[in-house]
Recover the amino acids of this structure.
């Protein structure tokens, strides 16, 4: 649906050209919720603005739905932008227009509908985002979450195939963030809209995204399904982002406990299996839990434990765990924080 | 009784002259200054039509006009005024210099008001497929409405001030009356009455401006 090929972007200033993005290759599939995560200054905002050409790439190509759009101008550019909705961190609503007229704005710009048709469409959009009762209010009379719903309704007005969310939940409290993420997923599911989400919070990626790219200093340092990147972060930056969201319990190997240190990852239905006790009985092993985290990635449950295995037949226990669909990683070394585990990416989602 | 020495009919005429001058000049100032202000805004740094050279040139010319004291501008412009309106006297003779004197000032206020509009709103409009021109007319100007009303208010008050000054070169109005009777003929009462009327006029303009700004502020 969206492809970036070797895209670079530099900003020229008095000090000379400052590169913001270096050779970005990204491909977002149709109907996917794709997350782009990174610290501030990593280049996420610039990256998302390349997709609707609010920023022009310095080199490389942008394609939408198989069509190269890099050099579009004038009417073609405006038509492209109408087919891509955008939601902003600070909502960017027109303060002088009511909720209904904010949602009507992109329809008025397109100029293809009559007033009655616009009114009808606005009513349907407001119903979708649950704001039918607030149509006549001005943005300042709304809460942050309500404002963002208006922003989402407005972004959907021209039936876009792609929705870009630039830190859409970063100005919201956790509860409202959850509601807005639920709404976005609902839109993705019901309308098949491809969503690209920029965020600095791993929590947002975990709750809402299918795949994720980690951006650091203008480069993609890690990319993959969220289940993989979130549970087995390989790059230090990704690890730092996961640790920020989860605490470091799940990833830290403590050297204090004796025995074989393993990291076990259960995903899917397997996360709810009473497996560890059975393995302990069958193979005469004991385990100490060193750390762990349990939760959901979108709707997929997961559980991840770092354990120290002692006694019995350790390697047979590992084989049995793997056979049951658990991802088993041996944590080596005694590094205090992130000993690079011998990553064995075997994804048996049970 | 002090009021017997005042010719109220003269004052009525002078007031209506002042109102006419302020009204017509304000209308023309807005008609000329608003496009100039928009031009300053869009050609300014970081805007959709950023043109540093064009902005610099326009800015330079407007600054020159703004640096000339109005009383001098009145005199300097006399030949041009005569050329355009046929006279440099009376209401007709004074409107041209009034507009020349206030339009650059108003244009600057417009530029400032437009710059106050949240950049995010402009970006959102562009992201929705609006052309830069649509963005300016459908998003930026409506969002700047309270600021623009405030700019018109301030300009109207400056015009009241300038019309009084133009009395010095025969422009008519309350300022003219105040100077002719109050200053040249030592009829202090007339001067006082004129000043009081001017004060009331300015207060009225400011109060109406403020209430309009409040009415149109949705932020």
């Amino acid at each position: 649906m969206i492809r970036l090929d070797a895209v670079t972007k530099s900003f020229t200033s008095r000090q000379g050209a400052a590169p913001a993005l270096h050779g970005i290759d990204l491909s977002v599939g149709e109907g996917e919720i794709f997350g782009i995560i990174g610290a501030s200054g990593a280049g996420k905002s610039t990256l998302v603005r390349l997709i609707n050409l609010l920023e022009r790439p310095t080199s490389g190509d942008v394609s939408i739905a198989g069509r190269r759009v890099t050099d579009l101008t004038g009417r073609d550019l405006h038509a492209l932008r109408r087919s891509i909705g955008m939601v902003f961190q600070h909502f960017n609503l027109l303060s002088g227009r009511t909720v209904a007229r904010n949602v009507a704005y992109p329809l008025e710009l397109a100029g293809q509908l009559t007033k009655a048709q616009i009114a009808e469409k606005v009513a349907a959009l407001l119903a979708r985002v649950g704001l039918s009762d607030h149509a006549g209010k001005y943005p300042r009379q709304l809460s942050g979450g309500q404002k963002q719903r208006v922003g989402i309704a407005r972004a959907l007005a021209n039936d876009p195939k792609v929705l870009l969310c630039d830190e859409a939940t970063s100005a919201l409290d956790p509860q409202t963030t959850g509601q807005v993420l639920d709404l976005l997923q609902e839109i993705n599911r019901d309308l098949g809209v491809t969503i690209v989400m920029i965020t600095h919070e791993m929590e947002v990626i975990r709750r809402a995204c299918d795949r994720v790219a980690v951006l650091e200093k203008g480069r993609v340092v890690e990319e993959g399904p969220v289940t993989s990147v979130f549970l087995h972060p390989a790059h230090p930056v990704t690890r730092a982002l996961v640790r920020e969201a989860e605490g470091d319990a799940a990833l830290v190997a403590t050297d204090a406990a004796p025995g074989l240190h393993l990291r076990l990852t259960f995903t899917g239905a397997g996360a709810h299996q009473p497996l560890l006790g059975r393995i302990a009985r069958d193979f005469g092993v004991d385990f100490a839990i060193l750390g762990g985290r349990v939760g959901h990635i979108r709707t997929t449950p997961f559980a991840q434990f770092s354990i120290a295995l002692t006694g019995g037949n350790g390697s047979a226990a590992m084989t049995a765990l793997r056979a049951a669909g658990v991802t088993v990683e041996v944590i080596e070394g005694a590094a205090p924080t992130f000993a690079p585990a011998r990553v064995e990416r075997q994804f048996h989602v049970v | 009784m002090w009021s017997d020495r005042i010719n109220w009919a003269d004052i009525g005429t002078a007031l209506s002259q002042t109102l006419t001058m302020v009204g017509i000049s304000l209308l023309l100032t807005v008609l000329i200054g608003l496009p100039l202000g928009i031009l300053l805004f869009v050609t300014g740094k970081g805007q959709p039509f950023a043109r540093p050279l064009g902005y610099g040139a326009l800015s330079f010319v407007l600054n020159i006009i703004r640096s000339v004291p109005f009383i001098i501008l009145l005199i300097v412009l006399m030949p041009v005024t005569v050329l355009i309106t046929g006279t440099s006297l009376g209401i007709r003779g004074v409107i041209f210099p009034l507009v020349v004197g206030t339009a650059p000032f108003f244009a600057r206020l417009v530029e400032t008001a437009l710059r106050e509009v949240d950049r995010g709103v402009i970006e959102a409009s562009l992201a929705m497929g609006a052309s830069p021109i649509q963005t300016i007319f459908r998003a930026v100007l409506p969002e700047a409405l309270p600021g623009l009303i405030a700019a018109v208010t301030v300009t109207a008050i400056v015009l009241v001030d300038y019309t009084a000054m133009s009395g010095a070169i025969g422009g008519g109005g309350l300022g003219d009356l105040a100077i002719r009777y109050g200053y040249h003929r030592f009829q202090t009462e007339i001067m006082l009455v004129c000043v009081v009327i001017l004060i009331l006029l300015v207060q009225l303009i400011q109060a109406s401006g403020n209430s309009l700004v409040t009415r149109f502020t949705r932020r």
Notes: The domain at 249-330 of chain A is CATH 3.30.70.260 (Alpha-Beta Plaits). The radius of gyration of chain A is 23 Å.
